[in-house]
Amino acid sequence: MTELVDVILGGTFHAAVLFLVAAGLQLVFGVQKLVNLACGSFYALGAYFGITAVGLALKLGLPPLLFFPVLILAGLAIGLVGLPIERVLRTIYRRDESYQLLLTFGFLLMFQDVFRYIWGATPRTMDNVYLVYGTANVLGVRVPTYNLLVIAASIAIAVGLGYFLERTKTGRIVRATAENRDMAEGLGVNASKIFALVFTVGCMLGTVGGALVVPSGAASLDMAVELVVESFAVVVIGGLGSMRGAIVGALIVGLMRAASISLMPEMEMLSVYLVVVLVLIVRPAGLFGKATA
Amino acid sequence: MQPNRAAAPNAEPLFETINVTKSYGPFTALRDISFAVSDGEFVSIVGPNGAGKTTLVNVVTGLLRPTVGEVRFLGQDIAGVGPVELARRGMSRAFQLVNIFPALTVRETLAVAVASRLRRIANPFRSLWRDSVLQADIERVAEVLGLRGKLDTVASTLSQGEKKLLDIASAFALNPTVILLDEPTSGVSTGDKHAIMEVLVTAAKAAGVRAIVQVEHDMDLVERYSHRIVALQGGAMLADMPPDAFFKDPAMIAAVVGTRPQSKKAH
Amino acid sequence: MPSVDIASPAVPRAMPRVSGLWVLLALLAIMALLPFVASPYVLLLMLPFMGYGIALLGFNLLFGTTGLLSFGHAMFLGIGAYTAAALTSKFGVKSFELLLLAAALGSGLVSIVTGLLCVRYTRIFFGMLTLAFGMLFHSFLFKFYAVTGGDQGMRVLRPLLLGMEWRGGKTAFLTGPFYYYSLVLFALLGLAMWRITQSPFGLHLKAIRENAGKAAYVGVQIFRMRLAAFVISAVYGGIGGTILAVTTGLADPELAYWTHSGNLVFMAVLGGSGTFAGPAIGALVFVLLQDFVMSLTQYWRFVMGGVLVLLVVFLPQGLSGAVSLLFNRRNGGR
To answer: Does residue C280 form part of some domain?
Structure first.
C-alpha cells in the first residue's frame, strides 16, 4: 500500500513538471505548427537559472522559506529568452516542418554549450532548501512538502492557462490564430505579435518547469536532451496540440516511470516508449488529438 | 468516337452504378444513383455545387465505398478497391484542381504511369532511361496529347493549360478502358477549354479509350461533346438523357445551372 | 500557403543529369589517392566519413527521394555497430563480409517490422514514431547491461578482410586495407544507389514525395514503396554503422541516441538533400568541420548548432544549392 502511494506521489510530481514542458510544446505546436526540439533546453535553462537565482537570493539574506516564489519568478524571467529565439524562428514559419525541427535542433546544440560555459560540465545542485517546508504525511508516506507545492503550482498553472485560452479576449485571439492564421490576420489580428507571445509563454512554461524540478535533483547537461524525448512521449500519447492530452500524457508517462523504477528499473524509459508505440499504432492521433494523421 | 447505340442495349455496360447511396452520418451525399456507361460513350455529370458530383466520382473511382449499392466495372464490383487497383483494372482519373508532380519533368510524370502499367517496379536497379519500350510509350502518349515538345520541362513551370493536359496525359498513360475527368477544364481560359477538349477527344480515340465520363460546369462543352447527360441535384438523380433533350428543357437547365448566360459568367 | 519543399532541388535541371554520380565518383577517386599524400590523421577522419556517407546515401533515399523525415535513423547505425560487436567479441565471427551481411540483414529485418508501423504516417508523425523506435532501441542498449554492456558499450574486434588477417598496428590496418575496403564498398553502394534513383522504382518514390494522392491514381503502391525505401535506407544505415564501429573499435549506445539521428539529418541538409551526392558531401563536411571546431574549442556544439541555424535560415538547399546558385549566376541565370 505505502509502495503504491509512493509510486503515485513520485509519478505525479514528475508528471506535474512534465506537464509544464509539454504544455509549452503543445501551445507552440497548436498555434505555430512548430515542433520545438529546444523545449528541453528551456527546461534545463530554467533549472540552471533557478539554482543561480536562489543562491543569489539566499546570499542577499532572503529567508529560505521564500525560495519557492523566487524559483517561479526566476523561471518566468529567464523564459523571456523565448522572445529573441522566436525572432529567428519567424523566418521559417512557412517552410517545411523538417526545417523547423532542424532549426530548433540547432538551438538545442547551442544551448548545451551555453550551459557548459556558464555552469560547467558537472551537475549542479541547489543549496539545501529542498526540505525547508518540511515533510508531509500522505496516507502513511512521508513526502517533502515541496513536492506537493509543485503539484499544486502545476495544477494552478494548468487552470490559469485554461482560463486564459478559453475566457480571455487574447486567449480567444490565440485560438483563432491557431485555427486559421490567414483568416485571423484578415480580421485584423497581428499574428506576429500573437506568435511572439505564444512562443514566449511556451518557453516560460518550460523554464518554470525546470526551475521547479531542480531543488529535488540536480541540473545537468543531459537533462535537456533527455527531457525532449520524454515530453515528445507526452504529446504523442496525449495527442499533438491538445492541452487535455498534455495533462493525461504527462500523468501516464510520470506514473509509468515511477512504477517501472520501483518494479523493474531496467524498464524505466523502455516502458514509456512502448506506450508511445502502442498509442501510435492504436490511436495514431493520440488520446486527445484530432484525427489528422 | 461515336456512341455505338445499336450495340448498346444488348451489350453489358462498361461500367455502372446500381442504387448507390453514400451517407455521412445523418447527411446523405448521394441517394440511389443508378446509371450505366456503354462502349463508345461520352457522359457528362452535371449539377449545381453541392449536388454530389465529386462524391459520385470518388465513389465510382473506388476512393469511397458506397453506403448502399454497387459499382460495377467490366462486370466486377469495384466498390472501395482503391486507386491503385482501379488503375490496374483500366479506369483512370484526372482531377478538378491541377494535380501534378511539381518537380518532375513531363517525361518523368508520364513515366510514373507507364512504369506502373508495364510493371517495371519490381527490380529497383533497372534503368528508366535505357528502357526503349517504356520511353517509346511515353513519347506516344506525349505526342497524342500535344506535349511532345515539353517532355523535358519541369511540370511546375508549365502553363496552367499545359498542367491540365499533363494531368490528363498521365491518366491516358495508363491505357485506360474508361477515363473519369473531374472538371477537366476548370481554371483555364475559355479558349484553352475548347483546345483541351479537342485534344482529349482525339486522344481518347487514338488511345483506344472506350468511354469518357466527366464532371463539367461549362454547358457549352457539355452540349458539344456529350452523348448523354446525368444530372444530379441534392444528391439525387434528376435526369439521364441525351443533350438535345436536356437542353430543350428550360426547367432542367434552370435546375442545374440557373439560366444559361449566368452559367457562362460563373465559369 | 506557399511552402518550400525541402526535398526539391533549388533549380531543377540546372546541371546535367549525370552530375550526381560523377560528383560522388570524383570524390571517391580523390580519396583513393589520398593515402599517398595525406597524414594518417586525415585518413582516420575519412573512415567515419565513409561510414556516414554510406548511411546518408540510404537516408536520403528516404528523406530526399521519398520525402519521409526520420528522426530515428541512428537506430540502424546502432544495429550495424552492435551486430559487428556481438559477432566479433561474443561469437568469434571475424569475417568482415559476414559482419556486413549480418548487419544488413539485421537492420533490414528490424526495419521491416518497424517500417510496417511507421510508413503509414507521414510528416511529423513519421518523425515522432521513428524517434520513439530509435529511443526504444537506445534504452534497450543502455539498460540491459548483461546483453549489451550498457553505457560501456561492446568492443568490436579487428575483422578479417576477404578472409585475410592483417597484422600490424591499429592505425596501419585502418588507414591501409580497411580504408580501401571501405572505399570500394562506398563506391559499389553509391553505384547501386544511383541505379535505384534512376530506375522506375526510384521514380515512383519521387512521385510519392511530390504528390502521394495523385501517385496512387497512376498506379503507385504508396505503402509498399515507402516500406521498400525504408528498408533499403536501413540496410545502408546498418552497413555504415558497421564501418563506424570497426573504426572506433566500439559499439556504444550513443550511436542510437536521438541526437545522433539529428546529426544525420543535419548532414543531409548541410550537403543538400535534393541532390544525389549532396548528403554524402554533407557527411564529409560535417566530419571535417566537427574535427576542426573541436580542435579549436571545447564549445564545438555551440558552433555546430550555430552553423545549423544559419544553414536553415540562409541556405536551405545546402551546399549543393549554393553551388548550383553560383553555377547559374555565372551562366547569366537560367
So the answer is: no
pLDDT tens digits for range C46-86: 999 999 999 999 999 999 999 999 999 999 999 999 999 99
Helix (H) or strand (E) holding C21: helix C19-37
Q: How many angstroms separate the CA of residue C302 from the nearest CA in chain B?
A: 35
Whether C232 is in a domain gets the answer yes
C326 belongs to a structural domain: no
C-alpha grid cell, residue C45? 577522419
Under a CB-based contact definition with an 8 Å cutoff, are residues C13 and B108 in contact? no
Within 8 A of A91 by CB-CB distance, chain C residues are 313
Chain B interface, best mutation among C62, C195, C217, by max B CB count within 10 A: C217
CATH number of the domain at A2-282, please? Answer: 1.10.3470
Query: Span C4-22, mean pLDDT?
Result: 50
Count structural domains, chain C: 1
Q: Which residue of C has its CA nearest to B92?
A: C217
Lowest mean pLDDT segment, chosen from A67-76, A181-190, B30-39 = A181-190
Q: Amino acid identity, residue C170? A: K
SS (H, E, C) C109-160: HHHHHHHHHHCCCCHHHHHHHHHHHHHHHHHHHHHCHHHHCHHHCEECCCCE
Global pTM?
Answer: 0.87
Cβ neighbours of residue B188 closer than 8 Å, sequence gap 6 or more: B160, B161, B164, B196
Global ipTM:
0.87
How far is the alpha carbon of C2 from chain B, nearest alpha carbon, in Å? Answer: 13
* pLDDT over threshold 70, residue B262: no
C132 close contact with A: CB closer than 8 A: yes
Count CA atoms within 13 Å of residue C285 on its CB side: 19
pLDDT > 90: what percent of chain B?
7
